[in-house]
Specification:
heterodimer, A: mainly alpha, MetI-like fold, 15 helices, B: 2 domains, three-stranded parallel sheet, 14 helices, 14 strands, 38% helix, binds glutathione
């Protein structure tokens, strides 16, 4: 039946039913908007026009935040965040209208013929009808919940309710690991949170690297034909995977603290590295300008190696002649800078000076230091996560069909070449996605650091909450940061995964 | 569609979890039949469960006094152990009705944090503890020391102020749980343990060798510790405030848990008002007129709970000092009931 025929065939009754459906849509939309409006005014704005005033303020806020980019990154982000949250439900009003329009179009174009004269028995109509109802209820609920929160906060704290301005007040407390940025007790809460964030990043990054190394070793050990080695790896996995992480953290903290001596009885390595129960102290390198020659040589070495590797690869493809790429690269990357170092040393004196830690008063002063809390956290996180990664690596390798091994050996590859060129690349496809989850887990687990006084994002944020009383805001910052960290990690791993994908020819 | 439905369902379920910090605390408390009291997680003399699991301590006794005032039964109270870091959140969110947990009255807490302090239960100050073997005799010799302390406290702020104003270096190692602080100090992670002096006396009892440590003479701060309620409920604030005042007034008037029944016959009008023989003072705060009688009879006056929990005859052995009554050389002073 063509469309023209369909239109002609429409009976008067059908036309009426169709009109009835459209009128119902219109009424429903108006009702939704009214309910929505009513709930917003009653629960949140306390006046029917409040929403528009807020919308205006919101635009103003964002404009102001953009123009006066002064209060530090977090504050700026916070101000926009608040503005968006305040009017976010307004956007659901637009959504309601959107749903209604879609419904109208759908009913008119795709289902012009009602299945039943009563719209409520019409499947398509019912589907969208419930969508509208649920959405309205949800929006009303959002108003109620935010209104409730604001109301309670208001009663507790008076007029200065929610906002990120407190971030610029003086923190007033000390932090025992400050990396890359300057922080003192007189710094702001925002700076304190930055210190915590950096501590989280450093711990997570180091943890991920170490956990990956441990995981690959354990995974490969588990597949060993040697009974002892494989069972050892299996035991490792079962043990560390099944003991709660928090417990492991406490055990490692004790294991780090207990056997180490007091500062005065420090274990000295070559009279320059000192180990005691306050941490590991090492000389801190202070670089002169001439040092940059060494750095330049190092970078040159890397770039040159890359080109040589490409050239060697091409030549081998064309002529079959191999080239000792690895030796050349090592010589370029390490030999060249070493040579430069010697040369600079001869011509301009030592390019690096060292600030040695010395025992003064209670403790070593100067030099570089790693606090015991960091060491304990790093051990706990990487050993725990390493157990999971070990299993992932094993699964990945086992997923490569045995035929691949046989084929590789039949081609005359050595065992090493086989692993490197045939097995691992295929295994990586299976390994990377679950590996990403483990990296994310490790990052999130690093928040347990608060238990042993490692000043990570959660520990420092907790202090800020307690000293300032602004829990809602700090929670928002926490969520935002952990979300961004997770998304960034996944994005990187997805990119890597895409790169490692089997290129099919 | 399905997803949206699930979302809506989740949202409705969440609604149950959003309990409003209700204004009518007294009504709430009466309805549920007990007071939910926030205390510390194990501070001998202040609040700590004994080997039978009964909470003991001066902070705990104050909670019991509140229960006696409201219910005429000191056992109608439940305790929520809270770390320094958790306590204000717990109070604000309505998880506890009152916080009786060695908490220092500061301006910021009293205002920005949305809290009200009902008075001072214990006048304290912050001190330092070190190992005797270090040979330190003054806090001014602590340059470069590692200091263990609790996070979320006035302590960590005071210690920063102290070292900064004396131009001394220090490293702060801040734990959430008091037990972790003591453990780390005991293991030698820190040279110094710092907290309220009452806290030093109490936590010392938890150390491996309590005798190996000394408290340095300096008192670096004022720490008036007292019960706290949240903003927005004046009636409940009054009840907590006047329960404390009643206990102090009772000591001043010589009314104890032992003689309170005889004292009812006293001709002293102040005692008559305190014990509800004269006047309608209980009604003024929404309780029965014998509220203070119940507090004293069932829990005791201020001096009694002090001596029982932290006084010279207890393991803490803290002399009354500042906490003696104003007419006995201290500064403990309560407004009159009239
Ligand atoms: N009075 C200070 C410190 C209170 C505080 O929490 N002190 C610690 C160390 S004594 C404590 O009570 N810990 C006992 C516990 O958490 O159980 C404040 O209010 O900030």
């Amino acid at each position: 039946m063509s469309t023209a025929e369909a239109v002609i065939a429409e009976t008067a009754a059908e036309g009426q039913a169709r009109q009835r459906r459209l009128i119902l849509v219109l009424l429903l939309t108006i009702a939704s908007l009214l309910i929505f409006w009513g709930s917003a005014s009653a629960f949140y704005y306390h006046s029917p026009t409040g929403m528009f005033a807020d919308l205006a303020r919101w635009v103003g806020d964002i404009a102001a935040a953009l123009v006066t980019f002064d209060g530090g990154f977090l504050q700026w982000l916070g101000r926009i965040g608040i503005a968006v949250i305040r009017v976010a439900p307004l956007f659901s009003a637009i959504f309601i209208v959107g749903v209604a329009l879609r419904l109208r179009n759908w009913l008119v174009r795709e289902h012009p013929r009602p299945a039943s004269a009563n719209p409520l028995f019409d499947r398509h109509f019912r589907g969208i009808f419930s969508e509208l109802v649920i959405f309205t209820l949800l929006a009303a609920f959002l108003w109620w919940i935010t209104g409730n929160t604001v109301e309670n906060l208001h009663r507790l704290k008076g007029d200065q309710v929610v906002g990120f301005d407190f971030l610029s007040s003086t923190a007033g407390f000390g932090i025992n690991q400050i990396l890359f940025i300057d922080y003192a007790e007189t710094s702001s809460y925002a700076t304190a949170i930055m210190v915590g964030l950096i501590n989280t990043l450093v711990l997570s990054f180091a943890g991920i690297v170490l956990a990956t190394i441990i995981g690959f070793i354990i995974g490969i050990m588990r597949l060993s034909h040697n009974w002892v080695i494989s069972k050892l790896a299996a035991g490792y996995v079962e043990f560390f995977r099944n003991v709660p992480l928090l417990l492991q953290i406490f055990v490692w903290y004790n294991a780090v603290l207990k056997p180490l001596p007091r500062p005065r009885q420090s274990i000295a390595v070559a009279d320059s590295i000192f180990i005691n129960n306050r941490g590991v102290y090492a000389p801190k390198p202070l670089f002169t300008d001439a040092w940059w020659f060494v750095v330049a040589a190092f970078i040159f070495g890397i770039v040159a190696s890359w080109f040589i590797a490409r050239w060697a690869h091409r030549r081998q493809m064309e002529t079959g002649q191999p080239f000792p790429v690895l030796t050349t690269a090592l010589a370029l990357i390490f030999g060249l800078p070493l040579l430069t170092y010697g040369l600079v040393h001869l011509l301009a004196g030592p390019p690096v000076h060292f600030d040695y830690p010395v025992l003064r008063g209670f403790n070593y002063q100067g030099g570089m230091r790693i606090i015991p809390e960091f060491i304990a956290m790093l051990l706990a996180l990487s050993i725990y996560t390493g157990a999971f990664i070990g299993e992932i690596v094993r699964a990945g390798i086992q997923a490569v069909p045995h035929g691949q091994t046989e084929a590789a050996l039949a081609l005359g590859l050595t065992r090493g070449q086989m692993l490197r060129l045939v097995i691992i690349p295929q295994a990586m496809r299976v390994i990377i996605p679950p590996l990403t989850s483990q990296y994310l887990n490790l990052t999130k687990n690093s928040s347990l650091a608060v238990a042993i006084a490692y000043p990570d994002l959660v520990a420092v944020g907790g202090i800020v909450i307690n000293q300032s009383g602004h829990e809602l805001e700090v929670f928002a910052i926490w969520m935002l940061i952990y979300l961004s960290l997770s998304l960034a990690t996944s994005a990187f791993m997805n990119w890597y995964n895409a790169k490692m994908k089997l290129v099919e020819r | 569609m399905k997803k949206m439905f699930a979302m809506a369902l989740g949202a409705v379920m969440m609604a149950g979890a959003v309990s409003a910090a209700n204004a009518g605390t007294l009504d709430d408390v009466k309805k549920k039949g007990f007071i939910q009291c926030g205390v510390s997680q194990g501070l001998p003399g202040f609040s700590m469960p004994d080997d039978k699991g009964n909470w003991k301590g001066i902070d705990v006794d104050f909670c019991r006094a509140l229960a006696a005032a409201v219910f005429a039964d000191p056992n109608k109270v439940k305790f929520t152990p809270l770390s320094a870091k958790q306590r204000f959140n717990a109070l604000r969110s309505g998880e506890v009705d009152v916080l009786s947990r060695n908490t220092t009255w500061t301006m910021q807490r009293d205002t920005e944090q949305g809290l009200n302090f009902a008075g001072v239960l214990y006048y304290d100050g912050q001190g330092f503890m070190v190992r005797k073997s270090m040979g330190v005799t003054s806090a001014l010799q602590l340059n470069g020391a590692a200091v263990c302390t609790n996070t979320g406290t006035t302590t960590e702020l005071n210690v920063a102020d102290f070292f900064r104003s004396h131009k001394m270096k220090y490293e702060v190692v801040a734990f959430e749980k008091a037990d972790e602080v003591v453990k780390a100090y005991d293991e030698g992670r820190c040279d110094v343990y710092t907290t309220d002096r009452s806290g030093l006396a109490a936590m010392r009892l938890k150390m491996k060798n309590p005798d190996e440590h000394v408290v340095l003479p300096e008192i670096i701060s004022k720490e008036p510790l007292g019960p706290v309620v949240r903003h927005g409920d004046d009636q409940w604030f009054d009840i907590v405030k006047w329960t404390l005042f009643a206990m102090v007034n009772a000591e001043e008037l010589g009314v104890t848990s032992k003689n309170v029944d005889e004292m009812k016959k006293s001709t002293n009008p102040a005692i008559k008002r305190l014990l509800g023989v004269e006047g309608d003072f209980g009604k003024m705060i929404g309780l029965s007129n014998d509220w203070a009688y119940n507090v004293i009879k069932l829990v005791g006056n201020y001096g009694e709970i002090y001596d029982r929990n932290v006084g010279p005859k207890t393991p803490l052995g803290l002399a009354r000092g500042l906490n003696a009554l104003w007419n006995k050389g201290g500064i403990m002073y309560a407004p009159p009931i009239r």
